[in-house]
UniProtKB/TrEMBL annotation:
Residues 42-311 form the AB hydrolase-1 domain. It comes from Canariomyces notabilis. Residues 1-12, 22-33 have a biased composition (Polar residues). Residues 1-33 are annotated as: Disordered. InterPro entries: AB_hydrolase_1, AB_hydrolase_fold. This is Alpha/beta-hydrolase.
Length: 320
């Protein structure tokens, strides 16, 4: 693994911190004819809360799994911290406001990063136009992957969505504005509505300065628009993972939110489950499938069970 900084030509004066894994292949696998993944770059897209370091466990498990089973490895695996996140510098174009840059800017940064890196890290100095991308994403990273694919069709061959954020909600409206009665149950719902609003409403700033206020307008539906065709005009593969309802509710109750499990299970989990089901319809049924529940995992599946994530990535690569 190589950890280093890179400066995008489009944003001089600031750097992104990246981690590149270019697994050492066997002599046979290094041959582009015998290794069907010699043109494949796996890119990991963070959510807001966890930086690129959170993918290390899954990446290490993936490399070990593929080697132990004598399966070819992709040409490279890339994780990175977006501007304002983890070890990367703040976005140099942000103004002195709580919001800064929008999702479209993050998508443009990703494209520029890949444009600069691909000739360097892919065999035979392949350009981005010659590469096949697999996007492994968590939370808002899934929304950014959808926006990237729409802006750059023909690039992405496969997606693994790890508990995508519900991009089309303000989170507050998941709960009734005026729950019936003044009993304890109604008070629990009022607390949940306030807590989710304080932490997750699109108007709440974040350290990354990624402005989420227009995200619902950019992605108003879970099931459309369809993900565009990937390299060679082929329909991409998509795997959608969802959190374990009980574990997520437990974490919400015991964590900083302090929202009762009963409220999460009544209002949040059903809505999130329906959203994930919608995501599976972004590709034809034979290229996706039902939502897979990550048993024992909350929202951050890559942290809670990196080995499970590695297995899902490996299966996705085999499906290509």
């Amino acid at each position: 693994m190589e950890d280093r900084s890179i400066t995008l030509t489009t944003k001089p004066g600031a750097s992104l911190r990246i981690s590149i894994h270019t697994p050492e292949q066997s002599p046979a696998d290094s041959n582009s004819i015998s290794n069907p993944l010699s043109d494949t770059l796996v890119v990991f897209l963070n959510g807001l809360a966890l930086p690129r370091a959170a993918w290390s466990g899954a990446i290490n498990h993936l490399i070990s799994l593929r080697r132990d089973s004598r399966q070819p490895l992709p040409a490279a695996l890339l994780s990175y911290d977006r501007y304002g996140q983890g070890e990367s510098d703040p976005d140099p174009t942000d103004l002195d406001t709580p919001y800064g840059h929008g999702p479209e800017a993050s998508v443009a940064d990703l494209h520029q990063l890949l444009t600069q890196l691909c000739p360097e890290i892919l065999p035979n100095s392949k350009s981005l136009e010659e590469a096949r991308l697999v996007l492994v994403c968590n939370s808002i990273g899934c929304a950014l992957a959808r926006l990237y694919a729409a802006a750059h069709p023909g690039r992405v061959a496969g997606y693994l969505f790890l508990d995508s954020m519900m991009a089309n909600t303000d989170f507050v409206s998941l709960f009734p504005a005026d729950p019936d009665g003044d009993d304890d149950d109604a008070d629990l719902v009022r607390h949940a509505r306030a807590a989710f609003g304080e932490h997750f409403h699109p108007t709440v700033p974040n350290p990354e300065h990624l402005d989420r206020r227009n995200l619902a307008a950019l992605l108003p539906h879970a099931d459309r628009p369809a993900l565009p065709a990937g390299p060679g005009g082929r329909v991409p593969r998509l795997v959608v993972l969802g959190h374990d309802w009980d574990e997520f509710a437990e974490q919400c109750e015991k964590g900083p939110l302090s929202v009762a499990k009963s409220v999460i299970n009544e209002y949040v989990n059903p809505a999130w489950g329906a959203y994930n089901e919608g995501l599976t319809r972004l590709v034809p049924a034979d290229r996706s499938g039902e939502v897979k529940i990550a048993k024992g995992c909350g929202h951050f599946i890559q942290k809670d069970d990196p080995a499970f994530v590695a297995k899902e990535i490996s299966d996705l690569l085999n499906g290509l």
